[in-house]
Amino acid sequence: MAGTGKAHLRDGGARLTVKDLVVEFRTKGDQRVQAVSGVSFDVLPGETLSIVGESGCGKSSVARAVMHLPAPTDGAVQLNALDLGSLDKKALRRSRVAMQIVFQDPVASLNPRRKVKDLVQEGASIWGRGTAKSRDRDAREVLDAVGLDPDVVWNRRPHELSGGQCQRVSIARALVMEPDLLICDEILSSLDVSIQAQMLNLLRETKAQRQLSMLFIAHDLAVVKNISDRILVMYLGKVCEVLDVEALDRPATHHPYTQLLLESVPTVGSSRVVPSKAPAGQDLPSPLNPPSGCRFRTRCPLATPRCAVEEPRLERKSDDQFIACHEVA
Amino acid sequence: MVNDVEAPRRAPRPKRARRAAGKAAQLLAVLLIVSFGTFMLSALLPGDPAVAILGEGHPPEAYEQVRQELGLNDPLLSRYVEWLSAVIRGDFGTSLIPPQSEVSSRLASAFPVSLQLAVMALILALVISIPLAMVSAYRAGGVVDRIVSAITFGILSVPSFVAGLLLIAIAVNQFELFPRAHWVRLTDSVPDNLYHAFLPVLTIALLEIPTFTRLLRSDLVNTLQEDFVLASRAKGMPSWRIMLFDAFRPSSYSIITVVGLALASLIGSTVIVETLFSLPGMGSLVVHAAGQGDLPIVQGAVLVIAVTYVVINTAVDAAYSIVDPRIRRAQN
Amino acid sequence: MPRTEPISAITPPAAGATTAPPGPAAETRPRGAGFDVLTLMCGLWLLTLAVVALVAPLLPLGEHQDSALTLAEPIYAPPDLASAHPLGTNALGLDLLARVIYGARISLVVCISAVLIGMAVGGIVGITAGYLRGKVDVVIGVLTNSLLAVPTLIMLIALASVLRPTPQNMVIALSLVAVPGMIRVARAQTLALSQREYVTVARALGARRSRVILRELLPNVALAIIPLGMIYISALIVAEASLSFLGIGIRPPQPTWGNMIAEGQDGKMEQYPFLVIVPAFFLFLTVFSFNLIGERLRKVWDTRQVKL
After folding, report:
1. CA C291, CA C172: separation in Å to the nearest integer?
2. pLDDT 10s digits, A209-266
3. Does position C115 have pLDDT exceeding 90, yes or no?
4. Percentage of the residues of chain A whose pLDDT score is greater than 90
């Protein structure tokens, strides 16, 4: 697997197009580590794309690179057909507002010294939008929309709120900017299960109301199924499979890694609620020194000598499914 | 399943060399800045140095001549370069106050006294702190621990000149156990020297004991919670053996650094004690010079102390990364 | 359904680095968060001292400075709470109570101003270094190390040799002592905090660098600097007292704790121990209080950050 390739990209009309994204980090010993190696995808208006993979596969790096926070090492990010890489600092700041991001850790996402009312109005105050009065009104409206009572939380600070409430404030802060694209980086994994469901409902409603495109990052296929239109499976900085959500339930052949992720999802009514064979058996190889050829081969049940030499490309399997694997495709 | 994950590669050598070169450059920059700051002290001096030297009421030509002689009319930078090159050759100029002796010879006779005081004070501080830390860590949170912690916190708040005065009042004047205001050089008589040095050394050591004790105690407490100590305990080793042989060594890394740094800063911080006990070290030299406005001596002393500090500091850093396997690993 | 992910070898710089690992047994003591009686008493002491020092000119105190006015007063009067000189008088008949209070006035004003300047300058410089990294960071690091290369007291003595010993000059010299430590802590805090998501979010919202520094980083870095400031106040009070004790700080007849203690030198202390004990006691209590409160504040804020 470890597919490069752009067979899954659609022609035109995409809100966000990402081509051959590469993100590199420098380690302390001055070594370079590629967290993302040539990932491409697109998101249509009103569509939700989920990126799924284990921690360390580079999915969060993708999210930050899309925002240009920091800018990717290589590759192109186009928002509404505008190439972000070509913009100067100021124009970049301006166009970045059309994308907003919500992070996993609800508490770390909020400045502990600010009150909710200031947090939610932060964007408006940065850009000097509207009057104090209209900002207040917008903020109240959006707090209401994410299910918080403005009168209750208005003057509170983050440590006076629960994790779920903090996450709602973060979402409100993003929505008040009326973005075209909302990036949700693992926003559910630090919340209780009951709150996860509420949050998913909230996101689904918001998306429907606002014609919002979403990039939803998660490590758990079960969560993703409920909200996505399309799913992209990543492993060690590369794309394994891209498929429409309907294709997930079809007893079709999947990429071996997708298969592994699917098996780790507990099924309703099953006696084992604990993830069965967690996609381990073995730890993730070090991204400092990824396996040659297909990066998944060291954990793949189907691996052949060919996989060590040749990197598979993402190939079209059906209209709604693209797989990067020598054996499956 | 194929598994051929290679061992992570070592950082290439040239990069390590480059980093060392970068460190060296920074060090040099620090020394240059300190020397420049020291040089600039004379620019902060209020009034005209020529007037200060000659006194008032001389004809203007006399002042002008002094300025010429001192090179005060040259541009600042060239004066600095000249001064620095003389300093590097070991020429710190001559003292302004009679007897106008060579600054370098005054420094050379004062430096060993401060060094001896600092080294002895460190040894004494360690001799007192290590057992204190061990009894504290032995039952962390217990009565002994609390008493030690309260006492060290209290000592931390006693300025050394107060401690020195109290020691003099009690040990010298009340009970006449020790002589006062007298220094015997180590080269003249070793026992006499040690006898005279004891009280000043104790006063300096009091400054460091709280820091050492608290640091070592918390490191010991951490180490004692580790598995290998538990293993020793399970083997039935007596507590004192565990404390001495298992826990002490791994707990001593950070205190070694702190001791090194303390040595560096103590050479300058013996000021108070040297003045109190009238010892002929760097501190009393610089205090007297400062009181009299004898700038060349102040500048020379500041530079020597700063260079000593930087050199020891760097040596400690280097030694630390060689000694402590954890740091070595982290750097790779 | 929610599964904690396995921690992998690399993720982009993670959050939460600010939370210093809770110290070992020190925090396991039952005292917990630590606002106990002792801390309360220290706070009360500092508050009383500050108020008394502030309103000193309005208080019915004896003469503290002008020996021409005390010709009729007894010299070396021992402390007697019932007398006109509750803490005694010195060689010139000056009232010791008045002198320690006026001494506190100078000490507190000079040291607190120096620390405030140090916090402002060191905080801003440290945040800048930590946020911008790169060359700026290196240059600031070299400057900081240069200031640290000269031991505190030696630097103060060197400055005292050329500056006139006015309170203003003392403030400048002492703030030079406080700046490098503040820079280091502010820089370290900034390095940790700038990885926090809220900083990224602010940038996603379009905030400029200056806004990120002032609105997002500064208030949170200040939280770490304040306890350090308390500890620095106590260190500077000692440094200032040491300088006056050595006779190169603020000079008599203006009273400071340091030059009052110096009056007990040369055998006077054995005859009239109160000459030293009175100012030394004030000095000790004040330094102890600042140390203790600084230490407790640090712990309280540490644990609060952990809870967050």
Report:
1. 22
2. 888 899 999 888 888 888 889 999 988 888 888 988 888 877 768 888 888 888 776 6
3. yes
4. 9
CATH code of B251's domain: 1.10.3720.10
pLDDT of residue A50: 92
Domains contained in chain C, number:
1
B147/B22 same-domain check? no
**Are B78 and B204 contained in the same domain?**
no
Say whether A298 and B330 touch across the interface (CB within 8 A): no
Helix (H, G, I), strand (E, B) or coil at A217: strand
Same structural domain, B281 and B225: yes
Q: CA B319: distance to chain centroid?
A: 17
Name chain B contacts of A289, Cβ cutoff 8 Å: 5-6, 8-9
User: Does A293 lie at the interface with B, CB-CB under 8 angstroms?
Assistant: no
Spatial neighbors of A91 by CB under 8 A, at least 6 apart, are none
Is B100 among the domain residues? no
Among B42, B60, B88, the domain boundary falls at B88
User: How many domains are there within chain B?
Assistant: 2
Question: For chain B, how far is it from start to end, CA to CA, in angstroms?
Answer: 30
Distance between CA atoms of residues C92 and C73, nearest Å: 8
Query: What is the residue range of C136's domain?
Result: 37-56+92-307
Q: Is the model's pTM score more than 0.80?
A: no
Q: Which domains does chain A have, with CATH numbers?
A: 1-80+218-264+278-329 (3.40.50.300)
Of A9-13, A204-208, A246-250, B26-30, the range with the lowest mean pLDDT is A9-13
Interface-testing mutation among B19, B30, B222, with chain C (most C C-beta atoms within 10 A): B30
Placement of tokens 């993703």 in the chain: A224
Residue that has been written with the tokens 């509404």 in this structure:
A80
Confidence at residue A28, expressed as pLDDT on a 0 to 100 scale: 64
Q: Which pLDDT does position A51 carry in this prediction?
A: 93
Encode pLDDT of C59-98 as tens digits.
777 777 777 776 777 777 777 777 777 777 777 778 888 8
Do B123 and B240 have their domain in common? Answer: yes
Q: Pick the residue from chain C with its C-alpha nearest to B136.
A: C25
Of the candidates B294, B291, B290, the one whose C-alpha atom is nearest the C-alpha of residue B97 is: B294
Query: Looking at chain C from residue 14 to 53, which residues have their Cβ under 8 Å from any Cβ of chain A?
Result: 15-16
Q: In CATH, what number is assigned to the domain containing residue C153?
A: 1.10.3720.10
Together in a domain, B112 and B68: no
Q: A: neighbours with 3+ CB pairs under 8 Å?
A: B, C
In chain A, the DSSP E strands lie at: 16-26, 32-43, 48-52, 74-79, 82-83, 99-102, 181-185, 213-218, 230-235, 238-244, 315-318, 321-323
pLDDT on residue C10 = 31
